[in-house]
Amino acid sequence: MQELFDDIVRAFQAVCRATGLTYPELNILVYCLLAPLSWLLVLALRRPRLGGALLAAALLLSAALVAERRRFTGLSRWFYDYNIRVLEQLGRATGLGYVALSLLMGVLVPGLALLLLAVVPRRGVLPLTLAFIGLLLAYFVVGWWLV
């Protein structure tokens, strides 16, 4: 498990060197933006009538992040540190430890969410996407109580 975690860290560091992003910026972009956007992409593909609005929202959010990069740098550092503290405390509380919980929350859960969105009946894609986004937000809110 540690080896997989280390491989992900090395891959992130390589992307940081190639893009000029800091590690916290990339981490927050991947886990807090790209993962939920991937869920919205599946929703847009499976429910095409929603696709235009979802694409517009994703482009607007991406443009805002690019335009406000300086502010995002500070926010991403703070949020990254906050997320680390939450994962450390949850790792201790569950007995899983930081590395296992990081892999669970950062790789397994988003991956399973994508898989479920791809196979659920079409009428269930929108409610399930909203539920996943709600759970992600709940995770962040619960973290406030832990740190």
Automatic annotation (TrEMBL):
It comes from the Bacteria. The chain crosses the membrane at residues 28-45, 50-67, 96-118, 125-146. Keywords: Membrane, Transmembrane, Transmembrane helix. This is Uncharacterized protein. It comes from Hymenobacter gummosus. The lineage of its organism: Bacteria, Pseudomonadati, Bacteroidota, Cytophagia, Cytophagales.
